[in-house]
Design goal:
The protein is an alpha+beta fold and 178 residues long. The chain contains four helices and nine strands.
Length: 178
C-alpha cells in the first residue's frame, strides 16, 4: 500500500510543471517559422487558485542568437526575440475555462483541453530567410512559463517562497545552420 501511494504521488508530481515535447524552427516559402509543443500540468495550488477565480498569465519566450566566441559568449548578437502572452481563467457561472491570446478567446469545458491548446504553439513566421547568413551557426531557445509578475501582489510574495507558484519549463535549446 505504501509503495502504491508513493508511485501514484510520483506520477502526479511528474504531471505537474511544464515540459517541452518538441520545438523546431523551419524554413518555408522564404521565411522561418517557429512551432513548439509543451506538456502543461498545473500544481494543485495553481489549479485551486484558478478555480477560485484567479486568472493565470503565461508567456512563451523565444530567442534566436548568433554566438560570438571571441567575446567569450558574453555579447552574443540577438537576431529575434518573441514574447507571446496567454491568459487562462475560469468562469464559475458557465463552468468553463477561457484561454485568451490578445483579442482572441476560446472557451473549454475541461481544464485539460485548455492546457492542451496552451501547450501548442502553432507555426508562426518570425524572420525572413535573407536575414540569416549562410554558413553561420545560430542558437535557438524556447520556453513557456507562468508570469508571476501578473499575479496580485500577495500571490507574488507566495511565488517567491513556494515552488507551487513557480511554473516554468527549462529553456529548450538547439542549433541552426541555414
Amino acid at each position: 500500500l505504501v509503495l502504491l501511494t508513493f508511485c501514484s504521488s510520483a506520477a502526479l508530481a511528474a504531471m505537474e510543471g511544464i515540459h517541452v515535447k518538441s520545438a523546431e524552427f523551419t524554413l518555408n516559402g522564404g521565411e522561418y517559422y517557429l512551432e513548439a509543443n509543451f506538456e502543461v500540468g498545473l500544481t494543485h495550488t495553481l489549479e485551486d487558485a484558478l478555480n477560485k477565480g484567479l486568472p493565470l498569465h503565461f508567456v512563451v519566450e523565444f530567442e534566436l542568437i548568433r554566438p560570438r566566441w571571441y567575446t567569450l559568449y558574453l555579447w552574443n548578437q540577438s537576431i529575434v526575440e518573441l514574447k507571446q502572452h496567454y491568459r487562462l481563467s475560469y468562469n464559475a457561472l458557465t463552468r468553463q475555462y477561457r484561454l485568451s491570446f490578445g483579442a482572441l478567446h476560446q472557451n473549454f469545458d475541461t481544464l485539460n483541453d485548455a492546457l492542451a491548446l496552451l501547450g501548442r504553439l502553432r507555426p508562426r513566421a518570425l524572420i525572413e530567410a535573407e536575414a540569416l547568413d549562410e554558413g553561420k551557426i545560430y542558437e535557438a531557445a524556447v520556453r513557456l512559463r507562468l508570469d508571476v509578475s501578473q499575479l496580485p501582489k500577495p500571490f507574488q510574495i507566495n511565488a517567491i517562497a513556494s515552488r507551487d507558484w513557480n511554473l516554468s519549463s527549462e529553456w529548450f535549446r538547439w542549433t541552426l545552420a541555414p
